Structure formats: C-alpha cells, structure tokens
Amino acid sequence: MATPEFILALREKIGHDELWLPGVTALVRDASGRVLLGQRSDNGLWTLPSGISEPGEAMAASCVREVLEETGVTIEVTGLISISTTEPVIYSNGDRTVYVDHFFACRPTGGQAQVGDDESLAVGWFDVFSLPEPLAPSVPRLLAEAEKFEATGRTLFDG
C-alpha cells in the first residue's frame, strides 16, 4: 500500500512525530442486510472499507472514493454513524499517527464487489452472523455502533 504523497511531504517536515489524520470507514449494507468487507493485504484481516481523506476532500466524498477504489462498489452515504479518535498507531518505520474517523452508513448503488487495488486480498458481502475470519478487532465494535445508530438515528461521538 502506497503512502499518499501529501503524507510523505508532511513526514519530510515532521519526521516520525504524531500526525493527526482524517479517516473514513464505511458500513455498506445491501438490500439483504449483508455488509461489505475487504481482506487487507497488509495483515490479512477482514474489515470494513476505510481510508484517509485527501487534502480539501469532503469526508462523505472520501468515503465514496475509498469504497470504490477498494471494492469496486459505488455507494451513497446515508448517515453519519459516529466520529471517534483512535489510539495512537505506531508503524514499523516509527511513524506515529492518530486518526479522527468518520464512520458512515452507506448503501450500494452499483458496481460489483471485487478487489479494486493492492490494499485488499479479497472483497465480499457477508451476513453479520457469519463474518469471515480472521476479523479485525474493530469490526464488532463498529457493528455495535451501527446498531445503536440504527435504533436511535443519533450520531455517536467520543466520550
């Protein structure tokens, strides 16, 4: 997975110091209620489509772009499930990053679920009661947040 050019340029200035980045995660449900997951190429874990917003890009637009790039599925963002701040992530090269993640509810509008780039090994639709392994630890938490959002219609925030 290639690091975006704007991050490489920032890293030239700040080195390995902590960098806060806007992130997006998508819960895409089809008409049958199945969720769209991708198996990451860096760690083999199945997870919801996600990524980093480009400079100046609207968060919902980032979500649409990331899902299409990673999965081949076009989507419509229908709601904001939650906004949360991750714990610091320390990469193998020493870079430290914190993500402010925007978790969106989405529905598919077209395309075909398929591996769209080198970030994924596989892509597919899954029943929430029959998720593939190995599953990223964040997925059960995110699905629980989505359940709360669907029950209340209220966006969840940190704290």
Automatic annotation (TrEMBL):
**Nudix hydrolase domain location:** 19-149
What are the GO MF terms of this UniProt record? Answer: hydrolase activity
User: What cofactor does this protein call for?
Assistant: Mg(2+)
Pfam families per UniProt: NUDIX
Q: Which InterPro entries match?
A: Nudix_hydrolase, NUDIX_hydrolase-like_dom_sf, NUDIX_hydrolase_dom
The UniProt keywords, alphabetically, are: Hydrolase
Q: Organism's domain of life?
A: Bacteria
Q: Which Gene3D superfamilies did the record assign?
A: Nucleoside Triphosphate Pyrophosphohydrolase (3.90.79.10)
Could you tell me what this protein is called? NUDIX domain-containing protein
**Lineage, please?**
Bacteria, Bacillati, Actinomycetota, Actinomycetes, Kineosporiales
